């Protein structure tokens, strides 16, 4: 790891690159300058070595209003952050997987109220941990088998992951195929009665991915590429970045031991080298993407399932995805989305390395925040995302 607390890369500010793209009025502060309102709000974090760099995007359902960059994709090399930088988006994969499954719901091939075992017989007879401590485990059958809606809303009782998905003590998203992972999930006792507790579960969303490939007869990764990413023009959204995409991958950082700067790090949850074709696809957290690609997905959702004149999801499916499905439980979650308890409220999802997508239907705005940071304990890093959203709302919220 490279300690960057004393890095003194030159501040890169240049002229405004304001122009119209495809007659959509997109303002872009490119790699040569940070002159937009959002970049100006984030630049102090770069100057204080709390933020290495970021790509920010603000859009409506029809067009991109603003695309800016700030800081560096590689601090030590002084390489400015480009607008097409690639990022591991981690759990931002979840709403994309949920959208793909809801396509099958729209087609009448899946019902969210069905038991998972209808599609994946491996789950028949699954056990629930009734009592457990370090010396004993008492099992019983749950009151009902887990349902599709429960794996989409983190209320299935499935654990976050299983030991088979660990390398040493580190959880990895890309070491088991979906078929292998499903056997592990089905053989692992549930933590809680289905539908009674919100418990964030990568295993649940990965199970949804396996349903997609079993029901469609198409491998999950291919289904996503052919039915979602390709048609939406999300050419850089992938589980396996190629050499050209990896050349645009933003380096990852975390706070250094002294909490006065950043040090370069690897992404713990993925297997290196990223070009290794044995790496598997994780519906819950395996995707890499760009700000523009993520925005295209957000535009389709904000537009009620339509993008560029083509319908991908029914309005009913989008409404179900983005409405509270956890009732009065402490966390409000839809199908693949963190949601508001208020109908029509904002919804979105973040990723483990601080990426974020938020959609505000009331104001018709989409905000995309792309960074590659492992955490901000003991620093002012927790203020970065709010600074972005506040700057975006002030500049474009009207």
What does this structure look like?
The protein is α+β, with helices and mostly antiparallel strands and 398 residues long. The chain has a domain at 95-222: Beta-lactamase (3-Layer(aba) Sandwich). It is 25% helix and 18% strand. The chain has helices at residues 37-47, 93-106, 148-152, 178-187, 202-216, 220-229, 243-246, 291-302, 315-321, 384-396; strands at 27-29, 53-59, 64-74, 79-80, 87-90, 128-132, 137-140, 166-167, 170-171, 252-255, 262-265, 287-289, 306-307, 310-311, 338-339, 347-350, 356-360, 365-370. The strands form six sheets. Strands 1, 2, 3, 4, 15, 16, 17 and 18 form an eight-stranded mixed beta sheet that branches. It has a two-stranded antiparallel sheet with strand order 5-12. A two-stranded antiparallel sheet has the order 6-7. β15 (338-339) and β16 (347-350) form a beta hairpin. The N and C termini lie far apart (43 Å). The model is unreliable at 5-33 (pLDDT under 50).
């Amino acid at each position: 790891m490279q300690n960057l607390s004393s890095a003194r890369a030159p501040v890169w500010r240049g002229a405004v690159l304001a122009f119209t793209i495809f007659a959509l009025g997109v303002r872009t502060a490119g790699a040569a300058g940070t002159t937009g309102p959002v970049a100006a709000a984030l630049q102090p974090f770069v100057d204080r070595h709390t933020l290495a760099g970021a790509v920010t995007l603000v859009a409506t359902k029809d067009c991109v209003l603003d695309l800016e960059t700030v800081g560096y994709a590689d601090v030590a090399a002084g390489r400015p952050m480009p607008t097409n930088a690639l990022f591991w988006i981690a759990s931002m994969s979840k709403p994309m997987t949920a959208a793909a499954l809801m396509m099958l719901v729209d087609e009448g091939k899946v019902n969210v109220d069905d038991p998972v075992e209808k599609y994946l017989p491996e789950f028949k007879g699954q056990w629930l941990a009734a009592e457990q401590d370090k010396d004993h485990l008492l099992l019983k059958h749950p009151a009902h088998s887990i349902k599709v809606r429960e794996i989409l809303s983190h209320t299935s009782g499935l654990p976050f992951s299983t030991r088979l998905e660990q390398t040493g003590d580190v959880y990895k998203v890309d070491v088991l195929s979906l078929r292998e992972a499903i056997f592990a999930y089905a053989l692992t006792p549930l933590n809680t009665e289905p539908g009674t507790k919100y418990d964030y579960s990568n295993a649940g969303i990965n199970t949804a991915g396996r349903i997609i490939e079993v029901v469609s007869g198409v491998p999950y990764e291919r289904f996503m590429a052919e039915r979602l990413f390709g048609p939406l023009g999300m050419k850089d959204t992938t589980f396996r970045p190629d050499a050209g995409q990896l050349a645009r991958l933003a380096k990852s950082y975390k706070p250094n031991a002294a909490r006065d700067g950043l040090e370069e790090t690897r992404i713990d949850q993925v297997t290196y080298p990223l070009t290794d074709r044995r790496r598997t696809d994780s519906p819950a957290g395996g995707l890499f993407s760009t700000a523009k690609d993520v925005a295209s997905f957000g535009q389709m959702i904000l537009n009620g399932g339509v993008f560029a004149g083509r319908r991908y999801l029914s309005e009913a499916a989008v409404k179900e995805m983005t409405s509270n499905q956890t009732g009065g439980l402490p966390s409000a979650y839809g199908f693949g989305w963190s949601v508001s308890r208020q109908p029509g409220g904002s919804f979105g999802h973040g990723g483990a390395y601080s990426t974020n997508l938020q959609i505000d239907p009331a104001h018709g705005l989409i905000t995309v925040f792309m960074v590659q940071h492992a955490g901000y304990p003991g620093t002012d890093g927790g203020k970065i995302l709010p600074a972005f959203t506040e700057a975006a709302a002030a500049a474009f919220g009207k």
